[in-house]
Amino acid sequence: LDAQASGGSGTKASGSTGSAVALTFDKDDYTEVTTTITTDDGDKTVKYHFYKAITYVTKPVDEKYQSLNVSVPVEIDGKTVDATDAPILFANSVGGYMPSSVADATGVGGAAMTGMPGSAAPSASASTGTGSGEVDSGGNGQVDGQGETVSNAKLALAAGYVVVEPGARGRTLVDSDGVYYGVAPAAIVDLKAAVRYVRANKGVIPGDTDRIVSSGTSAGGALSALLGASGDSPLYDSYLAETGAADASDAIFASGDWCPITDLEHADMAYEWNWGSNKLGSGSLVDQTVSKELRTAFADYQASLKLKAKGLGTLTVRNLDEYLVRTFLEPSATAYLAALSDTDRTTYLASNTFITWKNGKATLSWEDFLTHVGARKKDTPAFDAFDLSAGENNLFGKGTTEARHFTLYSLRHEGSSSARLDSDLPATLKLMNPMPFLAKANPGRAKHWWIRVGTKDSDTSLTVVGNLAAKLENLGDDVDAAMYWDAGHGANEDAADFIKWIAKVTG
Ligand code: DHB
């Protein structure tokens, strides 16, 4: 049954030869669905084949999560569509590093969102007020005329692309023995296994398996970035073999990442560098001793990355603010203001006098920007909470241990000053972080990147996107990175442009 699941390392088969029956895509097993999708070019009637809840590994731990849906357009506005060689949007709907299932979806972009406890809840659905308890795959999508969100997945289908929506295990899953079986690195292992399933079915599954474009938002954006950075890394082989992933490449062509909550082991320090002086929503300052210690540690980390930016040289904490302002914040404010009517722009500028508007360009200072954003979302430390209450503490749980510290700083703050992280953690952290793969210029990485975050998103530091984009630029990859002015967590304000970008980079 699982001949291809053994071994796990060594050569990667290019096709499905020798694959178990269980991992063979049945192209006749679909339901035909017709739906109307609102796009920039008006409403489109899309007829598509919907393949549902396909288990993508031979030794699933939990099929509810280790399964994927495939949507293949066959007719758009009455015209026959052949998606045989179309790009494949691989849209995960992971939020909060929680379990994510597509098994109950009745159509494209309909993955049910698992309940989000605590502060790690993504505000994706809240920001558009659908209130349905559902989040569209691959992020919010853009808001159509009726105030409904149109997801990347739906827009991709309306553009004639194949859409694959993978489920994945998440941090809260626990079996009857009390073992947490969805903690790191389960989610990325599952997404890689799903990519391998698609690749192993090259020529059978519709779409061009060499043009897989991944998308995700927040934790899903982090996983999408990780999928892009870590393509074909042998570091996951034992995990992939254990759950019976197909023996095929898991490299992807392009990676679309919205507000990626990544580089978690450096996220506390980065957060204090960015938002350290911002007060909480309650109006109180966070512990300034802790904040300053973390901020100091960030300087060393930033220097260690040895990133370069045009006109600034090596990025350090001395010029990182200037880099963020020039590269992201000012262009973002400029685009926002340029799109407003003269009256609305005048009104906005009158109540935001920290912005200078001259010759169609906005300029501003980092300090004024921080004041403008106002309340920070998280206390300090933002990710490795002293009391182990953060979602990320659970993400790095292990066995029957629900939550662990994953930074020396928080571990030692709570325990002895010579405490050591559990010995498995350095390796596990690396499996969850795109940055080390990029530091090694992983040859299997995606070479095309779409990266977005809202300027008012304080779920993590804006340096996460800044550094990811800088690293990729330094590697010579094709990067389209931008921020949405005044947008909060989970925003996706240019989904139509992302769909066009896919056509461009895959064309
Ligand atoms: C998400 C948000 C967070 O603030 C976080 O720490 C992890 C994940 C999310 O929305 O997916």
TrEMBL record:
Q: What is this protein called?
A: BD-FAE-like domain-containing protein
Q: Name one Pfam family in it.
A: BD-FAE
Feature: compositional bias, Low complexity: 116-129
Please give the organism. Streptomyces graminofaciens
Q: Which NCBIfam families match?
A: tannase_B (NF041556)
**Compositionally biased, Gly residues: which spans?**
130-144
* Top-rank taxon: Bacteria
Please spell out the taxonomic lineage of the organism that makes this protein: Bacteria, Bacillati, Actinomycetota, Actinomycetes, Kitasatosporales
Give me the ranges of the annotated region Disordered: 116-147
**Signal peptide extent:** none
Q: The BD-FAE-like domain covers which part of the protein?
A: 182-272
